[in-house]
Fold these 2 entries.
Entry 1:
Amino acid sequence: MKNKFLIFAVLFFLVGFSGTTFAQTEDELVEICGMIAKDATYLKDFKVRLDAGDPPPLQRFSVILKKDIKYRFSVCNSKDMEGKVVLELFDNNRLIATTYVIATGKDYPSIDVVCQKTGAYHLSFKFKEGKPGLAVGLLSLVETL
Amino acid sequence: MPSSTMTRRFLFFVVVAILFSSCNSCRNSGKRLSDDFVIPDSLNSEKQPLEISPSVISDMVQNISSPIETAAVIKGLKVPFNKDYIANTKFSENFNTNFTKALGLGIYGCDLGYLNMYGKTSLVIDYITTVRSLADGIQVGQFFDFSTLKRLATNNENIDSLVLISQQSMTRIDTYLKENKRSNLSVVIVAGVWIEGLYLSSMVAQETKHQRMIETIGEQKEIISPLMLLMNNYKKDPNMARLIQSFEEIKSLYSEVKITSEVGEPTAVEVNGVLTIKPNDIQKIDISDETLQKIIAKVQEVRAKLLKG
């Protein structure tokens, strides 16, 4: 009986630790996101982790964008969680860009934004249908105009 | 020895072995060093900073100043590299406190971005060493991938990786400081990057009279306000109060700069699967030559004072 308990304990550790070893880390997601951004120059990453909720919870960041620079916003979801991230860029309350276009139902792993006005903008991240998720957003520089 | 005892001992060793191997896998799985070594703030800061919740700091502007953007704009104008623009590394000897080390980290971090952007690998090593030393001084050197950067610079290989790792190291330092209630130092680094970026822009504007560079200086009016907002959270610290006073002198000159904006209707074009969005905004920056010269002179004065430590 005792032996059975010990075997169970060993199996528990094996299963538990194998799960930990293969879970995607946020740094790995940043690396993958960097590949999605291709040859654009890395500027900043945003780690997003949200629980399930209705309405979908949001995670916000403020960024300064500069005039006459083309920026690339890339997103990457963790394969360990079901949530699919949506990035939205706002100038005050005006939606400028998003990685998910509702009209076409199309998701974009990265979008380019040509900034024509230096100032503070707001980045908002959420997961579709309020599912729990882990994702990384990446801001990179494509070119100066 | 009875077989049940043998089995128990065997299983005990298996469990211990798994625990050891799992510890090793943590080390290799990209887990942040900060999870292993949490340095109490009381040991690091000269004065206990005003505590701001991490969520509030996160909501504040993330990238007030980027070494890469300034350098990219300068390089984009085809302005040749000039070694005289950047701070001599000998000034790093003047940075003896946590506050000045953080400030120096920002200044030299910005210069490193400028060097990297121009691929000046022969000079990069000196600046990497200085940045690493200053980062060590405020106990964040572990986030600076010194060996990889040195290898990339020494072998003159892959400038893109050099830029990426330098920038990521600065981001990791910033994140760690914010997560460990040392946001005051994070703000000081940002202030250092900003003043050095503005100094580089002012030198280029002075020598080239390029309209885009003059506009870059003028548009800092939009950036100095959120920066000062961050800095004012820590104004009880006498060092920060002095830095605020210097920056206020620059800010006051910006009252003469007029920025007008017209909001447009965003348009999107998809080319080869890449969606490009243009907000169609118009921003006009009016800055007289007199105001420009005053700002340039003040920035150079403040920067020279800061380099004295």
Note: DSSP finds 14 helices and four strands in chain B.
Entry 2:
Amino acid sequence: MLLNLSNMIVVNNLVKSYGQQTVLNIPSLEITKGQSVGLVGNNGAGKTTFFSLLLDLIQPSQGNISSKGNVVNETEEWKKYTGSFFDDSFLIGYLTPEEYFYFVGELRGMNRADIESYLNEYGNFFNGEVLKQRKYLRDFSKGNQKKVGIIAAFMGNPELVVLDEPFANLDPTTQLRLKELVKQKMQSRETTIIISSHDLQHTYEVSDRIIALDKGEVQKDVMTTDITFEALEAFFQI
Amino acid sequence: MNKLFVFLEKKRLLRNKNQDMNTVLTVFKWLAIVYFGLMFLLLGIGGYFSIEKAGLGMGSPIQVISRFWMYYMVAEMMMRFMLQKLPTASIKPLLVLPIPKLKIVKFYVSSSFVSAFNFVQLLFIIPFTIVCLSKGYSIIGVLAWVVAVYLCVCTMHFVNILIESYKSVFIAVIVVFGSLAAIQYFNLFDSTEYTQYLLYSVYEYPVLVLAYALILAASIWLTIRYYVTNMYMDDLLKTKVEVGTTQEMKWLDGFGTYASFLKNDLRLIMRNKRARTTVLMSILFMFYGFLVLTPGHNGEYPMFMMIFVAFFVSGGFLMMFGQYVPSWDSSYYPLMMTQNITYKNYLKSKWLIIALGTAISMLGAVLYINKSMELVYLILAMGMFNIGVNGYIVLWGGAYLKSPVDLTANKNVFGDKNAFNLRVMLISLPKLFLPVIFYYIGAAICGFWGGVVTLAIVGIIGMFFQAPVFKFIEKIYKKEKYSTLDAFKSK
């Protein structure tokens, strides 16, 4: 692992501050292609800030992030292979779930048939509560909206998937299914997945690597094979 | 308790994002208030004498005003409908606090009353009363009459709120206005002959003022009742779950890459009341000419008015819908910024829908074939100008507008329901000035046809300059991206 040239994400002297207050400061961080990374931390640790920077939704105060060699705030190349879901601002409320999937799928270069077979494949993830409901997304519950967003983020086999708090608001059945989905993607080693969560247990289960943020700085960066869950938990006990 | 509400209101206004735009708006608002205030004041002082001087043969000035009061009400109602802001509040956090609902509603309804629309009329009423009294009219009669006049003004405030809340009130107002207009248009009979007694009888029988008070009380009661009965979370968040059907819209696939965006924009228009209203308004704009065009004494229409009409007929959609690009996408802007779309294609698809909407609006020219062929040519030329030049300007301006459109707002009883307001008017102005200037440049050289051809040619040239223009607009959008994302976050 010493000389790994296939880095998906390279963080370079990244600082984000609002006025005097620095909310994120990561001098360097590399995420290997195909790795599944869990980003954990308490409220205000900087998880969402990091994700927003990664997707060029906010501007870094210093430094940059490059994704497959593309500096994200300089080119739009990364959009071609990145799937993401944060919250309902990633959903179009007045579409039915099907229309939403067609929209996202078409943007990712899938055709009708691709999209339909993709939805068939993941039909059980929805537990029969999403497709063919004759409802617009805005009228679905938060949990079901989230399911739509997560499944859409994986459309078109993106090389990078970024999910912010995917486990929150999900019912227990879907949490299990989401873990299955991520594990399945992990096995193929083609998709780099970055997931943020408050939930140590879930994150530990589906990640190769855990990065713990605290007050905007990386406090711990370990491979799950090198640390037991108890040891990880102990880290968060004050 | 009220102190708490006032505190909340103050904070809401002060901490509102988009301060710059608000400052500009406030300046214009006060200019308008001062202007109308002066007008009313002048009318109040001089009105009596000029009516007397005109010698209309309709009796005393009080009678004359009573006679035309209906028309004034119609005009004020339209002004209110278009420009007055209705009470808005984020009520959700208050619902669970130990405050009686009635109290919340009463506060917001009464605070909505504090608006220039309800007080500027006093500048007319008070001097006019003084003049009348000094002329020796019956004191009680005059006082009852002016109170009735002011009660009408107050009633209109609540009717304006009710229009948005109850469909039946809306329809009733439309029917009354429509029949008045029809009577007038077809010259059936002079309706003012009869309606004058509605107000004038108050002067003769002062007791009747109570009837006006009663109407006002009823409208207040209805307004309060509407808000109280609708103050539940369900109503605030969503009135009803609509049946959604997946629409494929395959006929749009011909537009290639832009097809999926066009489909979404069409769905946006069909499925959101706010967007639907704006499109309906733009259809109404097609008939604008019938409202304002009156032939001059030589039987021809004044040129300036024709240009105006041509702009509104062909540019209704541009103004009502295009103006709010990209704000329509505000609730899911992060999605648009992270999907596999380049900024350029996103903007182009937006331009395309504006161009298509404008092209359809140009068909409105057909309505005017019987009125004036010159106007028809003007509308077509103006349409080309709107597509080729104003389409870009709208997009350019959109980069700076940054006011989120809350698509669900219409479902919220306290939400911002106005689709058309002062803000839209203001940012439309540059788009109106440009074609006027180009027309007159052309007209100075070659008369009417010079103007029309100049407009059309400038429009067509504009269409050919897509690539560099989009490069420029894209640059601005990229620069504004982060602050736009930030502004759209605050609903």
Note: The two ends of chain A are 33 Å apart (CA to CA).
